[in-house]
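Repro:
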Amino acid sequence: AWNRYCTEKKFLSEDEVDPKPITRIPFTLTRDETLYLPKWKKFFDHDPNLDVTDLNRFNTTRQIYSKMAQVMVASDDLGSFWSFYDVLENALVSSPTPVPEPPNPLFVKIPKWDPMESRHSIAAPVWRLENQKAAQALGAPTTSLQQLAPRFFSNQQFLLHVVTECLDILSTRKSTTSTTDVMAFADELVKRASKALGNNLATLQTEGMYAAILRLHRTKGKAGGQQLLSKIGELLKSKANLVEGQHKGVSEAITSIYYLQVLEGFADQSADRKSKAFEPKVIINQMGNVLKAMAADPHVEWAADMHLAVVKTLVNCGTMAGNNYFIKNVMRKFPWKCEFLEALYPEYRRAADVDTWAELAKRSLVWTARYNVEVSEDFKRMIEDDYGTIKVQVRSFRELAVFQFKDAEEKRHARDPVNTLPNPYMDFVSHALPFPDRDTGYPNEYGDIGQWRAPNSPIKGPNHFAPAMYGEHLKGFTSEWRDPTNSSKPPAFASPWERKYTQYARGQHPSYDMTYAGPMPEIFPGRTVFRQKTRWDQFDIQKQSKHKMAGPY
């Protein structure tokens, strides 16, 4: 692995100084430099530690090796994976932890001020908290693990982090390797890491890695909830045996990030009705025991995704308790998503009579409006498929009408052979740069537009710290006050610029012979369409030009 200075990336050795000393010295300007240098050369506001030339002071070798190892796992190249992983593991066990790179304020993008951002009335009482809004549900939407950013990890913790990432990749990607090989590889990887860390494993935070192991066993190994529970018990027991002192053999509590995998294991197990593992009474019994254990432990924090797994299990096992569970535990306590209703709908279909079924479907739609939940297209279609039976409408008349028109128009467009021809209005490419290559817009407060190639200008780079200025009449319809200081006549240019800027404003560019490939400005933009037209919008080629086409009518 090489860096941009063409020196090989090396791990830290014992006696090496880290981070590297600062080579760049902050400067001051003499009086005449202060007078004649342009502003962007005098701008000096940042910490020289973070300066661009010094980005290499911090040792990031372990990040690079870990990314390479992850790429090898993702591309099913397990031989190459071991070649990277061996180097990384040896280095992490033997070399000192590098000082983490501090966050770099120069790379942080500050968003432009949004005019709709502060639209409060002048008389709004600032001192009163805004507690008059709808109350937010308090629970967490997802179960998450609280840990530092990986660059702050010690080398040993970083090794566990690498293993976790690789296991996550294995459990999420479809791989060409057989399942048994994947599981064998994962076991080998975990064993290697544990062997390298030895007894130090007892002092490290292993939640992330153990949860990744459970996820892999659930997704690839098709393990049910009870198997996952015994698996995490074994893992925690083996970790507890490494502890030295009077706490030896006392295993950690099972936290919510493990319980999430166990509950999702029950959900997966109950979803597959054809498998031998599908025994509803057994599954519900086991899940009931797990839920009792969770209720007995005050440290388990529930989140919406754990409840979702429970609801799926209840519905798949045919207990008619899913809806009541959802109302009692989730509806007003968590910010939930439409997946809950998609999971509950099969239970609504099993209701005793059609009226109850229709009523439950309507109520679920009312809940989405009340709790501000976006109705997913899947759920709408589930209800629409049963329209013949329960007569519940999920679309407004406007949506239906618009769809009819759009559908007819798209079909006509698809049948029209002209639309298969190349489109001279939309698909010309004037040049291949993926960014606008000239400064469109107003002069700075120094009368410069950002042309780099000005022949006589002393300024050789982009202006460092000048915000965009908008003329008073271009500021948009929403500005709160007039800005009389903003002259509509921009400041006069330096002499070589006048002729060029005239051409520039006409659309002829001084140093590029190309047509402008940017968005064309509209004088009165359509009120509600906030989207640029793309070449995939359905409209005919003939309608796009400014010239009228000759036609029979």
